[in-house]
Each structure stands twice: as C-alpha cells, then as structure tokens.
Amino acid sequence: MDDTVQRHLPGLLPGSFPPVEIGQLLNHTSGLPSPKIGDSFEWVYATRFKKWTPQEYVGEAVRNPMEFAPGTQQHYVDMNTFVAGLLIEKVTGRSYEHEVTTRILNPLGMRNSHLPGDSIRIRGRHNHGYQVVPKGFQNAIEYGRQYVVDMTVSRSTSTWASGDLISTTAGLETFIKALFGGKVVPSAELVHMFTVPQVPTYGTGDPAMHTSGMSRLELPGGIVAYGKTGARYGSTAGIGATRDLSHTIVYAVNSTDAKAVGQNQRCMGIVLAAFAQ
Fold it and tell me: How far apart are CA 157 and CA 224, in angstroms?
C-alpha cells in the first residue's frame, strides 16, 4: 500500500509530480487531477462510441497540476482507479479484464457479470437505459410529456476500471456477501476497505467518507453501512451492507435522469427503507 506508482509505472506521471502511493489511489487521497473533457450530456451522447485507452485518459489528466499534496485531502476521481487498473496490468502481465474475471467473477460464480472492454453492447437479455432530453434532441423518442434517448448501446471505456462492470442484482448480492465475508480480499487488506482516512474532503473541508473501495454511511439509529454506488446515463445501481452482514442492500434503477441530484435522493430513500429497523 505504501509502494509508489512511479516505481511500477515510470514515466506515466510527470517528473514534477510527487510520489503517489498505491494506497492513496485506492482511498482517493492521491491528489491526482482529472482530465478536462466534456461533461455535458450533449458531449457524452456525441462521443458515446469513442474508444478511450487508459493511457489516453491518464495523459489528458496529467496535463493539469496536482490538486493537493498526496495524503492530505480526499477527492473521489476516476483517475485513481484508471492508474490502479494500469498497475494491475503491469504487475500481473495480463489485462485488467482478465484479472477481475479470473480472480473474482468466475470463482464467485457471477456468470451473468462481465467487463465489456471496448464493446458497445451488453451480452444476453438486459434492460434498456434512457436519458431525458429536450424536444428536438437527436434521436429523441417521445415518452409521455417528455423525450428520451436510448443510452444502452455505448462504450464504457471512458470509465474503464472505475465503472465498466455489467452485472445483475443477484450477482452483486453474491459479491457483497463474499467481500464482507472475507472470501474476496484477505483479512489484512480487507481492513482498508472499512477504514476512512482522517483527512478533509477536497473543496468542502468536510470529513472524508470514502474507504479503499467503498464509502462509509452513518444512518439514522446509529447504523453504519459501507457500500458503493454508481450511475451511467440510463441507469444507476448500488450495493451495501453493515459490516456484520445483518443488513444488506442491492438496487438497480432504470432512471431517465441518472446523473441528477434528485436521483441521489430517490436512491437514498431505497437505502433508508432497506436498513430501517
């Protein structure tokens, strides 16, 4: 965890960047910047078939300066998991997709889960995901009083090791139970997944909330849960549990506005209902 990115991936980060520890990637305290690419839905839709390579993504990001000194603040950015994915490939000599599939998906029997790579399609039967758009938007379909576009067919290389897993709620339930039960990560390393660094959040100064791979959430009644959420245009999902697995949750929502603030509120309602005593 205290080894450095620079030792394993020399030349990936600029020489002016300070040493970045692998553990700092995992708990998002590295200070590494994000690429300045479009973030509007119009840009996302226009580039939905673009194939990003991890090296291209990282290269765009390091054009920008470090956000803060490593280990001093926390900022959840995809850049951290992109670099972690490249480390996996360098250390193992095999692809990130191969390692996740052979080390996690196959041993746990997650047969309906896969990493799409640069494919634009989802295997087998699946739901379609739609995003609400203004009238007159390219390829818009009338939906009640609104208009939507189908976002199901698109590439996920822009999120690669950060969010390109395709799964089912049953598969995610299998994973969260196995993870918390010590069947995925050895006990010594699993501790890091339940530990929040004692640093402020970048930009707000609030206490950090992310662990090495999850987030900590304190719910009404003193229940403490750990989990992970994620959203792409057309759908949003989340997994979580108390550390003793007395409460678990897995949800998938076919949202027509998955990136909106209101979607977070709706999903929080699902979480509160699942963990209410």
Answer: 33
What CA–CA distance (Å, rounded) separates 24 from 28?
A: 6
Q: Which residues pair with 216 in a beta bridge?
A: 226
Q: How many helices (H) and strands (E) does the chain have?
A: 10, 7
Whose tokens are 């576009």? That residue is 149
* Residues 6+ positions from 26 with CB-CB distance below 8 Å: 1, 80, 84, 192, 212, 213
Amino acid identity, position 47: T
Residue 86's pLDDT band (cuts 50, 70, 90): very high
What is the strand order of the sheet 248-253 is part of? 215-218, 224-232, 235-241, 248-253
Query: Is the CB of residue 258 less than 8 Å from the CB of residue 231?
Result: yes
Rounded to the nearest 10 degrees, how much is the dihedral formed by the CA atoms of 133, 134, 140, 145? 90
Our measurement of the distance from residue 250's CA atom to the centroid of its chain's CA atoms, rounded to an integer in Å, reads 15
CB atoms within 10 A of CB 242: 17
Give the 3-state secondary structure of residue 116: coil
Quote helix, strand, coil % in the chain, to nearest 5: 30, 15, 50
Contact 192, 212 (CB under 8 A): yes
Nearest to 247 by CA among 269, 220, 226: 226
For residue 122, the Cα-to-chain-centroid distance in whole angstroms is: 18
- pLDDT tens per residue across span 24-66: 999 999 999 999 988 789 999 999 999 999 999 999 999 999 9
